[in-house]
């Protein structure tokens, strides 16, 4: 884990990183999340995204997010490659995002997941997130769980 560094997307080629992550999609995800990797998350919102890279420049984790004008930090995607799970890399990426979001004045972080995504629910709860079932959040019959946690004041 010591050989993994977290690099902000703004320091990398957004187009190249997105392509590489999509090429490795199945090493990060058990469901098809390709549609959630819209280029806007890499280009326009890339300043709030990060990639965890090995010394050999292999992507082993990443986070995509943004902070809204009303200072809500939104964690859009958090992924750790299957061979780097249970190493605290997800927590490390969240700390990176929390620090950046807090520096912009954000005081709350939210994420959204499907109600059956037990791994995501457990992870966010372990970070202190409260959960709220949002009926029809993604359209009729498409319930989601909104996970909300406070950021510590700087």
Automatic annotation (TrEMBL):
The N-acetyltransferase domain, residue ranges = 7-152
Q: Which CDD domains match?
A: NAT_SF (cd04301)
Q: Record's PROSITE patterns?
A: GNAT (PS51186)
So which domain of life are we looking at? Bacteria
Q: Which SUPFAM superfamilies match?
A: Acyl-CoA N-acyltransferases (Nat)
Query: InterPro entries this protein is in?
Result: AcTrfase_GNAT_prd, Acyl_CoA_acyltransferase, GNAT_dom
**UniProt protein name:** GNAT family N-acetyltransferase
Q: What is the species listed in this Swiss-Prot or TrEMBL entry?
A: Blastococcus goldschmidtiae
